[in-house]
Amino acid sequence: MVRKEKQSSRATLSSDDMASAVQDVLDGKSLRITAVEHGVKFQTFQKYVAKKRTTNPDDDQMEPNSTVRRVFSEEQEISLCDYIKTCSIMSYGLTTIQALKADRNISNTRAEQAKRRALARKRAINQQVKPPKPTIVRYAVPHHLQEKMLDISQLQHLLRSKELTDAATQTENDQCLSQESLSIEKAHVQVQVHPTDLFDFNVEVQPIVEVLVAKTIEEALIEVLEEEELMAMKEQQRKFLEYMATNTSDEIESDFNENKFKNFSQNIFRNNYMPNLITSV
């Protein structure tokens, strides 16, 4: 789509005529009368006169600026024309309401596509393999330094050798041992604890243990009895259903035989006895 060139408001007035007209105004002639005489718009002629008064007389331009800056290139104008033709074909024969509905559907489709793309992008970000966060022990410690730290701790553990004399107070090899407390004779008699001072096991603890054991055994027996009762009920229900099924089949068979005998007797009566009762016509 080629744009039309903008026509100058001076019509066919040459640069010399425009310069002479501007000079007449500068000499004292009326601006409006001069514009009417030369056939130029008053606003355009006023701009030329103001330009002549403000700029250098040798640098002013009196030629009409008819060139127009192009907004689009030729390829862009061709693609724009094709787009306009496609839109006109799509909306040809449609009312205003129908065209608005079609436009709304297209915009909704684009919005849904954008939403799906955003969800897919978010899903891809969540599915990316992320490096594990460092633990508190290994926080901001390089791998080679971690190995060195482990080796040093193992060496310290091997080199730490202490004699353990009492098995009752023995601790693990990798744990620090506290200093041995010095025992002073006749200094800790007031805090001495005898075996029966705090509590008596046979009097205070054993009854509680017996009650707990009895309750546990009772609950276990109740659960076993409930399971046996449920199994007995299921067996009784199965036998009852089998009995009902056999009785139902016997009743159905007896009804079928009875109906069959009844139909047979009716056929015999109709064929042997009924013809003798009907008079010939």
Automatic annotation (TrEMBL):
<comment type="similarity">
    <text>Belongs to the flagellar radial spoke RSP3 family.</text>
</comment>
<keyword id="KW-0206">Cytoskeleton</keyword>
<keyword id="KW-0963">Cytoplasm</keyword>
<dbReference type="InterPro" id="IPR009290">
    <property type="entry name" value="Radial_spoke_3"/>
</dbReference>
<keyword id="KW-0175">Coiled coil</keyword>
<keyword id="KW-0966">Cell projection</keyword>
<keyword id="KW-0282">Flagellum</keyword>
<dbReference type="Pfam" id="PF06098">
    <property type="entry name" value="Radial_spoke_3"/>
</dbReference>
<feature type="coiled-coil region">
    <location>
        <begin position="97"/>
        <end position="128"/>
    </location>
</feature>
<keyword id="KW-0969">Cilium</keyword>
<keyword id="KW-0597">Phosphoprotein</keyword>
<dbReference type="GO" id="GO:0005929">
    <property type="term" value="C:cilium"/>
</dbReference>
<protein>
    <recommendedName>
        <fullName>HTH psq-type domain-containing protein</fullName>
    </recommendedName>
</protein>
